[in-house]
Design brief:
- This protein has 288 residues and is mostly helical.
- The chain is built from 15 helices and two strands.
- It has a two-stranded antiparallel sheet with strand order 1-2.
- The protein starts with 9 loop residues before the first helix and ends in a 12-residue tail after the last helix.
- The mean pLDDT is 88.
């Protein structure tokens, strides 16, 4: 029987680790590499015109699954399925739905894999025991979200085979190109940030995407990766690993845990959210 997600369990320790944020760009590219997801993002997402609001909504939603309690996760899952039910259209002459089972499962798979990759690149690899517990717990979240059980491989080894085979079938598409162009040119989120610093952040994000994408997809997309890039990435990853080693798991996950709890509270008090922050709160049907 899968252990519930409580303090000290694998999903609790790793899903909200702040180092996971270093793979945000990688996850976005992997998601829109799926043709159905690419079409849905092209037709229904506002990430190119308002990327920061889109990012905040996504972080708020993710935080609830693991740290918002079972009831919070169930409500958020129902909200997301209701929202995505309206995301339909036509791509390459065929109708698509954001709730297409294979595409829906793939989006969840990228979120399952990212914390494992974050530890592999920037921390300490999860042990086999941790991987099995983590994967079982994330399958539980997948079922809450409505991912069909038959679309979730039975164990971590099978998941890795599914993940690698899916990536092998991907190639370039216009949505990936638009996403990468957005990341190259996106305006800084706050005016006081010096322009040279922001340009460095954008370059760093693109380097992280190239360095953490599966090599086969990086090559398929024509993203250059030199030996010098590899050395810079290795130095950066080593620095993050050393700097984070003394930080306990409860502190590494604290920001995401508090975001999760706060968003559950905001859902129950939407008027407070609108007065303090403005716009639609975490319970809104206006976006995920």
């Amino acid at each position: 029987m899968t252990r519930p997600i409580v303090r000290g369990t694998a999903a609790w320790k790793y899903f909200g680790d702040f180092r996971d944020g270093l793979l945000a760009g990688q996850v976005l590219v992997l998601q829109v590499a799926h043709p159905v997801v690419a079409a849905g993002v092209r037709d229904h997402s506002d990430y190119t015109s308002d990327p920061w609001t889109r990012l905040m909504r996504t972080v708020a939603s993710l935080s609830i699954y693991v740290y918002g309690g079972t009831a919070g996760a169930q409500v958020e899952a129902a909200r997301l399925r209701s929202l995505h039910r309206s995301f339909t259209g036509v791509a390459d002459g065929r109708r698509y739905s954001a709730l297409d089972p294979a595409a829906y499962a793939w989006v969840h798979a990228t979120l399952v894999k990212a914390p494992v990759d974050a530890q592999r690149f920037f921390g300490v690899r999860m042990s086999d025991v941790e991987l099995e517990e983590y994967y079982a717990q994330m399958c539980g979240i997948g079922r809450l979200l409505g991912v069909r059980e038959r679309d979730l491989p039975p164990d971590w080894a099978a998941f890795e085979r599914y993940y690698d085979a899916t990536v092998a079938g991907f190639g370039p598409n216009p949505t990936i190109e638009a996403l990468l162009e957005t990341l190259r040119t996106v305006e800084k989120p706050v005016g006081w940030l010096p322009d040279p610093w922001w340009r460095a952040v954008r370059r760093g994000q693109l380097c992280l995407i190239r360095g953490t994408l599966p090599a086969s997809l990086r090559e398929s997309l024509g993203l250059e990766w030199t030996e010098a890039d590899e050395r810079r990435f290795t130095r950066f990853a080593g620095g993050v690993r050393v700097a984070c080693r003394p930080i306990p798991a409860w502190l590494r996950t604290a920001p995401m845990r508090w975001v999760g709890k706060l968003n559950v509270w905001f859902r129950a008090h939407p008027g407070v959210y609108e007065r303090l922050i403005g716009g639609h709160g975490p319970g809104s049907t206006q976006g995920s």
